[in-house]
Design goal:
Helix content: 10-25%
Shape: elongated
Structural class: alpha+beta
Number of helices: 5
Number of strands: 14
Radius of gyration: 21 Å
Order of helices and strands: HEEEEHEEEHEEEHEEEEH
Strand order of the largest sheet: 1-2-3-4-7-6-5
Length: 238
């Protein structure tokens, strides 16, 4: 359990409201706003960049399950809110570095709760995969961000020399569409796309500007690039 006095070791001003502690990390260009709900069983931390919305942050902690597992993420639903987030994901202290330093000994039950759009995380990410995602693809502390679906691609493009290993790589939607366009006319290339639920589609190109979408490893549909883009946007965010 983390107390107000504990927090005052590292933060100049800690305020109590609605059962939570509120404090800030002030940087030259922006601030991080923190909300901490501390109980005997677990400490729940919500962090936002450039926005202080105490009501919403507090509500995220109130909607978290009472007993979070200590070794893995937990995804839970959120009530309708002004930001459009559908869920939140709570990750244990081994997944993040918040409140390290003088509070290290008190971090054992500290869970970081991030509001998300459901398609942004599968919910079974390892600590390394989570840290990589928040550094490269999902700006989790920006509550005004656009949706950043979790997309894994496995591809080979002999025309550009690009490709990935069979385990795939996490990319943004913009990168996916760029690779689709690069595939145009490369008849011996392919792109395999996995969304956050683990569903897979494959894209081939039969000729310049013509593509084939394969669902369920067998159902084929011819598409132009605009139709393909629209379908893929739905596939990764549904």
């Amino acid at each position: 359990m983390i107390s107000r006095d504990d927090l005052l070791q590292d933060f100049d001003d800690v305020q109590s409201e609605s059962g939570c502690y509120f404090f800030q990390h002030v940087l030259p260009q922006f601030n991080y706003a923190y909300c901490l709900r501390s109980t005997e069983d677990q400490d729940l931390l919500v962090v936002s960049k450039g926005i202080e919305d105490r009501k919403f942050a507090s509500s995220v902690t109130m909607q978290a399950p009472a007993c979070l597992p200590p070794g893995a993420p937990t995804v839970f639903e959120l009530q309708a809110n002004d930001y459009g987030f559908t869920h939140a994901m709570a990750v244990p202290h081994t997944y993040h570095g918040h409140l390290k330093g003088r509070l290290e000994a008190k971090r054992g039950q500290l869970f970081l709760c991030i509001p998300i759009f459901r398609c942004e995380f599968a919910g079974d990410e390892s600590a390394d995969a989570f840290r990589d995602a928040i550094l490269r693809t999902v700006a989790v502390f920006d509550w005004t961000r656009t949706v950043s679906p979790k997309i894994s691609v496995y591809f080979d493009n002999p025309g550009t020399g690009g490709g990935t290993e069979a385990c795939g790589a996490i990319v943004t939607f913009a990168t996916l569409i760029s690779e689709v366009k690069n595939l145009s006319g490369i008849v011996n290339g392919f792109i395999e796309i996995t969304n956050y639920t683990g569903d897979v589609v494959e894209v081939l190109s039969t000729s310049e500007g013509a593509f084939t979408l394969i669902r369920n490893r067998k159902d084929e549909e011819a598409m132009d690039v605009d139709s393909l883009r629209s379908m893929l946007e739905h596939f990764v965010s549904r």
